[in-house]
């Protein structure tokens, strides 16, 4: 287990935000390996999860808004789609934050999977309302699985900064 780091906003908010955006750009490269395209996980999801678990902050929703708008611009979606999905997940996480305190890694992964499913489901419903057609369930399922696999990145961020602020212990 690593030593807790200080909660300098650039270290626990800014750096993960930039890393998530860079990972999105790298996975968005139109490259095929053995005829298959790279998956399109939502790299912002581990960051959103970790920010809610680490501590409530006024800056985190602004970072989520920025990440979501960048996702919308990069993927060419409706502006506000990903910020809304990610902020719904963040709000639910904040409401259930006390239940997650002190949970094992496995339980946090289950929470992460449920929150990712909620974000994906809300996105699915918003697309259905906007386009009046159903998105591919296989594509949404594949995106969910690849995003759920990203939990170790959220756990690493939580592990680094969870004990840094003594006010929230």
Mean pLDDT: 86
- Runs in which pLDDT lies below 50 for 5 or more consecutive residues are none
Shape: globular
Counting helices, strands and paired strands, the structural category is: mainly alpha
Q: What share of residues is helical? A: 55-70%
N- to C-terminal distance: 17 Å
Question: Could you tell me the strand content as a percent range?
Answer: under 5%
The second-level CATH architecture is: Orthogonal Bundle
Q: Find the CATH topology.
A: Arp2/3 complex 21 kDa subunit ARPC3
The main sheet comes to:
2 strands, antiparallel
Task: Report the strand count.
Answer: 2
> What's the helix count?
8
Compressed to H and E, one letter per element, the order equals HEEHHHHHHH
The tally of domains stands at 1
Strand neighbour order, sheet with most strands = 1-2
Rg from C-alpha positions?
16 Å
- The CATH C-level class name: Mainly Alpha
What does this structure look like?
The chain is an all-alpha fold. It has one domain: Orthogonal Bundle (Arp2/3 complex 21 kDa subunit ARPC3). The chain is built from 8 helices and 2 strands. Strands 1-2 form a two-stranded antiparallel ribbon. Strand 1 and strand 2 form a beta hairpin. The two termini are 17 Å apart. The model has no long low-confidence stretch (mean pLDDT 86).
């Amino acid at each position: 287990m690593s030593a807790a780091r200080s909660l300098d906003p650039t270290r626990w908010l800014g750096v993960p935000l930039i890393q998530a955006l860079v990972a999105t750009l790298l996975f968005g490269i139109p490259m095929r390996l053995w005829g298959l395209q790279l998956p399109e996980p939502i790299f912002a999801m581990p960051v959103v999860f970790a920010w809610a678990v680490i501590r409530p902050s006024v800056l985190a929703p602004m970072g989520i808004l920025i990440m979501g708008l960048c996702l919308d611009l990069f993927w060419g979606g409706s502006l506000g789609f990903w910020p809304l999905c990610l902020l719904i997940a963040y709000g639910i996480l904040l409401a259930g934050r006390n239940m997650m305190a002190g949970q094992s890694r496995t339980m946090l992964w289950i929470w992460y999977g449920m929150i990712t499913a909620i974000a994906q489901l809300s996105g699915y419903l918003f697309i259905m309302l906007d386009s009046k057609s159903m998105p591919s369930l296989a594509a949404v399922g594949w995106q969910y699985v690849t995003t759920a696999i990203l939990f170790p990145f959220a756990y690493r961020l939580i592990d680094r900064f969870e004990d840094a602020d003594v006010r929230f212990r």
